[in-house]
Design brief:
Number of helices: 6
Distance between the termini: 28 Å
Largest sheet: 3 strands, antiparallel
Structural class: alpha+beta
Helix content: 55-70%
Strand content: 5-15%
């Protein structure tokens, strides 16, 4: 549909088109968060002041619980020497990522937490739109 088609439409058709477009307003835009990002979002929501060292500590606790209890936790190992995290993806199996990638995912999780809570400058709708376009 181009501009000339919109000009030719009458007022009633434009109103119907607008109502139809509103139904798609909250539709998912872009990629859905992957398994690890969703997992980190849940962990960061529980943390009062999330930072990278605290996140590593929490993930190490999850890895220890996995080893001791034998439960199916996602994080298998946090290796600070080799600077990597090993986790178990439900469909793809064991995956290793660098802690730099984890740090980037933490940044996204912090932004998601602030958008949900509505803290400070993130309460303004134009700032939220800018943030959602970044990633």
């Amino acid at each position: 549909m181009n501009d000339s088609d919109l000009i030719a439409m009458d007022k009633k058709q434009l109103i119907e088109l607008g109502k139809f477009a509103i139904t798609f307003k909250n539709q998912q835009v872009g990629k859905r968060p992957e398994f690890l990002q969703s997992y980190l979002n849940d962990i960061v929501k529980e943390m009062p002041n999330p930072n990278f060292n605290e996140l590593l500590y929490q993930l190490e606790l999850v890895a220890v619980r996995r080893d001791e209890e034998g439960k199916n936790h996602a994080v298998e190992k946090v290796d600070r020497i080799w600077w990597e995290l090993t986790y178990h993806h439900p469909k793809r199996g064991r995956i290793k990522i660098s802690l730099d990638t984890l740090r980037n995912k933490l940044t996204v999780a912090k932004i998601n937490k602030l958008k949900v809570v509505g803290v400070g400058r993130f309460e303004q709708p134009h700032v939220v739109k800018m943030i959602t376009k970044v990633y």
